[in-house]
Amino acid sequence: MAARRRRQAQVRRRKRILACCAGGGVLLVVIIAAAVHAGGSSKNGGGKDASGETLEAVTVSSSEAAAAASAKIKPTDLKMTFTGDVILGTDEYFDYSTSMNAYYDLNGPDYFLKNVKDIFSKDDLTVINFEGTLTNETARVANQFAFKAPPEYVNIINKESIEAANVANNHSHDYGEKSFTDTVNTLKENHIEPFGYDDTAVIEVKGVKVGLFGIYELDEYDGVAPQVTANINKLKKEGADVIIAVFHWGNELESCPDQYQVKLGHQAIDEGADLVVGHHPHVIQGIEYYKGKTIAYSLGNFCFGGNYHPTEIDTMIFQTTISVDENARMTGSTINIIPCLESTTWEYNDYVPTPLTGADAQSVIDKLDERSQEIASTYQTDTVYDSTDTSGGNTVSSSSVG
User: Fold this and answer.
1) Last residue of a domain, one of 70, 93, 125
2) The pairing of beta strand 330-341 with beta strand 354-355
3) Which of 34, 82, 96, 352 is the 20 to 30 A CA-CA neighbour of 223?
4) Can you state the angle between helices 62-70 and 2-24, rounded to 10 degrees?
5) Are residues 82 and 66 in the same domain?
6) Is 205's pLDDT higher than 80?
């Protein structure tokens, strides 16, 4: 027992020494613990602590002290969740009886995300694509479709562990600049961090600074490529440890990414992004691995007030768990695909995203496999998602299959 207490005392002293090294930057090679007891020093170079136990010499190497001084955090994992398009409200010309607004009036805000809120609450960061506006503005722009919801509809998402929202997309200004400003302000007031266009966000999670930027690109590659560079450089200057690129891009209902998506996705990773996710096509597109990083080209729709009968009602939640070292540098990642419907039923959209199980879930995984292989054949690459392959830098689990 006495030996055990001596060892515990040594450990306590060692921790204090390392703490001092980290705080003051002092490198100590050998620390001799000499405690003064009753006004005198011990003859054998040891001493006693307050409990009377003999203390022995404690050695701290220079490499240990240096590591303690330079470490930012303890190595850790971050689980992050991403969804596709979230449109709250409706188009004013849609049939009210089947609109999201009718379901809101009947069921209230807690109805819509009830089947996925547990997924969001168990991660470290949840990011959505917020498409449409939260505004009372009445001056509609001249779009075929324009979406808005009263600002109170933020209550659909503000209690469901959603921390950030991309607002760079083709419906963010459906009722003019004021509607965009209203949306951004409403999200901020409800502790959901908006980002997109030239506005980036840095969110600290477990001591790691996660940088987010959002780009809206529809056949305008030359116009937005410099914006990608500028946003990544901005996030680096802001001290981001991990950088995530979120793109609203591609062509509606196309199962394979176009050349601009591929170019921008690769550019983002070449310039420092650690993950790329996208949306806009309203369908799932495949996943590519590029230089050890993941590009999920389209996550499809999610909580989608834009259509009562979507062309494809199946979708997915994309999760990644990244590992970071003591300097908050990314050292690896795994991904997890959660197959879902935009609804509780395949027949129509009741606006309640719902995880799938069994054969239904497997059908989504099979679709993702097929569309990833489409990327491989179109762009001559073999580093794409394959649900049966768990080797290499990414492992895949489809959590709702079985």
Assistant:
1) 70
2) antiparallel
3) 82
4) 60
5) no
6) yes
- Tell whether 320 and 195 lie within a shared domain: yes
Residue-by-residue DSSP string for 107-164: H-GGGTTTTTHHHHHTSSEEEEEEESEE-------S-S---EE-GGGGGGTTTTT--E
Same domain, 122 and 34: no
pLDDT tens-digit map of 350-396:
999 999 999 999 999 999 999 999 999 999 998 999 999 876 444 44
Residue 338 has pLDDT above 80, yes or no: yes
Which pLDDT score, from 0 to 100, does residue 206 have?
96
* pLDDT exceeds cutoff 70 at 3: no
Q: Find where tokens 């496999």 sit.
A: 369
Range of the domain at 26: 2-70
| Pair (171, 269) in one structural domain | yes
Find the largest Cα–Cα distance for the chain.
Answer: 92
Of 14, 45, 70, the last residue of a domain is 70
Contact assessment for residue 173 and residue 195, using Cβ atoms and an 8 Å cutoff: no
Whether residue 105 has pLDDT greater than 50? yes
> Is the confidence at residue 100, as pLDDT, over 50?
yes
Residue 391 is predicted with a pLDDT of 62
Q: 70 falls in which pLDDT band (50, 70, 90)? A: low
The 3-state DSSP class for residue 346 equals coil
pLDDT at 122 over 70: yes
Find the CATH number of the domain harbouring 306: 3.60.21.10
108's torsion region: left (phi>0), alpha (psi -120 to 50) or beta? left
Query: Is 14 a residue whose pLDDT tops 60?
Result: no
Q: Which residue has the higher pLDDT, 116 or 72?
A: 116
- The reply to whether 228 and 274 lie within a common domain is yes
Q: Taking each helix axis as running N to C, give the angle between helix 259-270 and helix 221-237, from 0 to 180 degrees, rounded to the nearest 10.
A: 20
Q: Residue 239 corresponds to which amino acid?
A: G
Question: Domain check: are 178 and 53 in the same one?
Answer: no
Nearest to 305 by CA among 132, 157, 181: 132
**Number of domains the chain contains:** 2
Q: How far apart are CA 390 and CA 364, in angstroms?
A: 18
